[in-house]
Amino acid sequence: MDEHKHYPIDSAGRAVESNVPIVNADISVDSARSHVLAGMSRFETINYVYVTDAGGNLVGVLSIKELFRADKAKKISEIMKKDVIRVHPYSDQERAVVLSLRRSIKAVPVVDHDGKFLGVIPSDRVLSILHSEHIEDLLHVVGVQKSLHEVQSLGTESAYELFRRRIPWLLIGLIAGVLAAWLIRSFQFILEQELLLAAFIPAIVYLSDAVGNQTQVLFIRNLTFQELFKMSSYAWREVRIGALTAATLAVIFSAIGGAISGSREIAATLGITLVFSILAAMGVAMFVPWLLLKFNQDPALASGPFSTALRDISSLFIYFTVASLVLKSLS
């Protein structure tokens, strides 16, 4: 199979076995039997005999049983099946598995775009692909969007390679922390006017991150089943959930904040901030994984640090903007 390694890792061409019985359509059944028996020890699979023309194009197929039951004087062209199930080498391996199961065939022929016979995907390889696809589906359920091959390679990657994959997203978190510090400094005049606002910064950021992380985990998992529902309907449902969640938490948080601070301005600020920051956090939690998946990035690896950074900055910006407006209007 070394000659097929130039095909993509998950393509049908990568799984091709070329060492199979191949005969010409014009020879007799007796000659075909002799050819199969002579090569019995070297063939990798002998479920079927594949029939090609002078140019190597696949024109028919017959089973070993059909070959040895037929009249030996007949030509292969008289007994072969001309309507042959086939896949192209760049087709996904899963397509070959589906054809094998639906058509009850033990090996799936692979031909190029000119019809030239390249070989078959044998039954043992079909079972191996089916097993791999099932594992990938289970990985997708828990939010891992990588292929099985990519997941298996994680165990053999060097420390430097893992460092190289992780550090860019962590640097984003570091930059976000610096931006958050700059943002707080920019609203220093608000803190000077009402110092108690600083005491609620951890709670605002935590609640936004908690709701955002919850939404993000569920959304990444549900990306696996996006064929089963409309994304717009899913997003609208999440907006309604977010509105109910934000309203509930905002009422409770503003009441507690008002009781602690004894200030209606702070109570109003906390309630309004929490509504908008939670809705923003949920929006980020759905948009970032979807965008990363579109660019073939693993949302489970990349969206965590990136989304957290966006949520933290947006929550702080909303908090101080609302505080400045509320204090200005109620003062």
Chain-wise SSE layout:
Blueprint: E1 22-24, H1 29-38, E2 48-52, E3 58-63, H2 64-69, H3 76-79, H4 93-103, E4 108-111, E5 117-121, H5 123-141, H6 148-153, H7 159-186, H8 188-193, H9 201-222, H10 231-261, H11 264-294, H12 299-330
Parallel strand pairs: 1-2
Antiparallel strand pairs: 2-3, 4-5
Helix pairs in contact: 4-5, 7-12, 9-11, 9-12, 10-11, 11-12
Key descriptive features of the protein:
single chain; 331 residues; mainly alpha; CBS-domain; Tetracycline Repressor, domain 2; 2 domains; three-stranded mixed beta sheet; two-stranded antiparallel sheet; transmembrane helix
How would you briefly describe this protein structure?
By secondary structure, this protein is mainly alpha-helical. 62% of the residues lie in helices and 7% in strands. The protein folds into two domains: 140 residues, CBS-domain, CATH 3.10.580.10; 174 residues, SLC41 divalent cation transporters, integral membrane domain (Tetracycline Repressor, domain 2), CATH 1.10.357.
